[in-house]
Amino acid sequence: MPLPKYRYFAPTDAARMSKLQFTARKAVEGAITGMHKSPHKGFSVEFAEHREYVPGDELKHLDWKVYSRSDRYYVKLYEQETNLRTTIVIDTSASMRFPHDPKNPALVSKLDYAKHLAACLAYLLAHQQDLAGLAAIDETIKVEIPPASSPSHLDLLFKHLEAIEPGRHTGLVKHLHALSERLPRRSLVILITDLWVEPAELSKALQHLKYRRHQGLILHLLDKAELTLPYEKMITLQDLETDEKIQIDPADLRETYNTQVEAYLTQVRRVCNDCDMEYHAMMIDEPYDKALVKLITRRS
To answer: What is the reported pTM?
Structure first.
């Protein structure tokens, strides 16, 4: 059986993604005709409203029913459709190496899972003639590829995914502010992250995206171990970003830990909701392709 050309995108991914349809929730702006709602109106696709006739308008767009009731000439306006500009942002801070186990190299980390999701989403968007870009963020923006959709662009994007290594500390919130200013028009930002950031700072970054009229889709990667603290014996926990270590007895801390984690997740979901951003939690023990199909089906 031949090996896939790309590490994070297999032929089976292409077959599965080709059957899906990813749509924006709100109006977008683009350069070519596509499948997403545009903020501009014209004379095609789906009826939106009337406006009074002016000389030069095509007579075929006159609404004769309205004329018969009002004795005034009105033309029908329709919603135009356009293509979508998307930037897929991957958190590449050290915490995305979780669950890190040198004794089990086959264990899928959050970063590897994020790369698979990013590759599938980029292919899906390009397949439906939308534009997909990529940004990888830890202390800095280590990769930034503008949105496009050509086969050569996808090849470049997939190869950059293969080359990305985890950084150290997270500068995710800081650099989301910078991206908010640089991204073109009404873009969609798909953020793939473990979301271990201060909720108040996250709120400011998402509000900035909203202010710039961008849409946000947050894919929050979670592992069962960090939700339930399932360990039975004394263990040593290590902070992947600072290397700080602490020894704990899980039985003593589990109840308090679970309460605090649930409170944090509730706060994060509230922040996303208040900022009008889509939030979806994704458990990394579920195969990435199945999880993505479920997500896109649910959005539809």
So the answer is: 0.80
- In one-letter notation, the amino acid at residue 49 is E
Q: What is the chain's Cα-based Rg?
A: 23
Which residue from 183, 188, 146, 135 is spatially nearest to 24, judged by alpha carbons?
188
Backbone angles phi, psi at 149, to 5 degrees: -145, 5
Mean pLDDT by 10 residues, the chain (300 residues): 76 92 70 44 51 71 82 69 85 90 77 97 94 95 93 95 92 93 89 95 96 96 92 87 88 92 96 97 96 92
**Closest by alpha carbon to 209, among 195, 236, 221, 191?**
191
Reported as type and span, the H/E element at residue 134 is strand 131-137
Number of Cβ within 10 Å of residue 10's Cβ equals 17
Nearest-CA neighbor of 123 among 221, 8, 38, 277?
8
34-57: buried (b, 16+ CB within 10 Å) or exposed (e) per residue?
Answer: bbbbbeeeeeeeeeeeeeebeeee
Among all chains, which residue has been given the structure tokens 């995206």?
A: 209
Burial code of 127-145, b = ≥16 C-beta within 10 A, e = fewer? bbebbbbbbbbbeebbbbb
4: phi then psi, degrees, rounded to nearest 5: -60, 150
Is the bond into 99 cis (omega within 30 degrees of 0)? yes
Q: Is 230 in contact with 224 (CB distance < 8 Å)?
A: yes
User: CB-based contacts of 63: which residues, under 8 Å, 6+ apart?
Assistant: 50, 74, 75, 76
Q: Enter the DSSP assignment of 2.
A: P
